[in-house]
Amino acid sequence: MGAIALVAALVGSWQPSPDRWLLTWLVAAAIAAIVGMIAMARKARLAGATLAGANARRFAAALAAPFVAGAAITYELWTAGAFTVMAPAWLLLYGAGQVTGGIFSVPAVRLLGGLFMALGALAILTPPDWGNIWLAIGFGGLQIGFGVYIARNHGG
């Protein structure tokens, strides 16, 4: 998922319009979501668990509200032409989802969420055209770093 975000940041930086930049990131998010679901299903299968178990359902429910909010906010920002606000909003809302979903996971997931939220706050304080950089750091760097840590210390 992190590698997909790094590619999206690079491809997004080449786009000739804000609409194309947004499309790049939306396609990357869809691909990353599919990769994430496949990875979760694989981990559950290897552990002899199911994605329909109580903890999986709670984790999904805790993520759902910030993700739905992110989709709605993205749509409204798009209609208003406020593309520069999207990166901080995405980082903050994804972080909120990780913090709330992380209640049903290992502590590293909550820490990851807090770091995403910190990046979102920092993104607000920097020039708007730094959005791709912040998204690459969060969805690329943090995802890869924490993914490696969780895989090594918590089995995936």
Attribute tags:
156 residues; mainly alpha; 6 helices; globular
Summarize the structure.
The chain has 156 residues and is mostly helical.
Structural class: mainly alpha
Helix content bin: over 70%
Mean pLDDT figure: 92
What is the count of distinct domains?
1
Radius of gyration: 15 Å
**Global outline:** globular
Q: Helical segment tally?
A: 6
Tell me the span between the first and last alpha carbons. Answer: 13 Å
Describe the structure.
The chain has 156 residues and is mainly alpha-helical. It has six helices and no strands. The chain has one domain (2-154). The longest helix has 30 residues, at 18-47. The mean pLDDT is 92.
Mind sketching the topology for me?
Blueprint: H1 2-13, H2 18-47, H3 54-80, H4 86-101, H5 107-125, H6 131-154
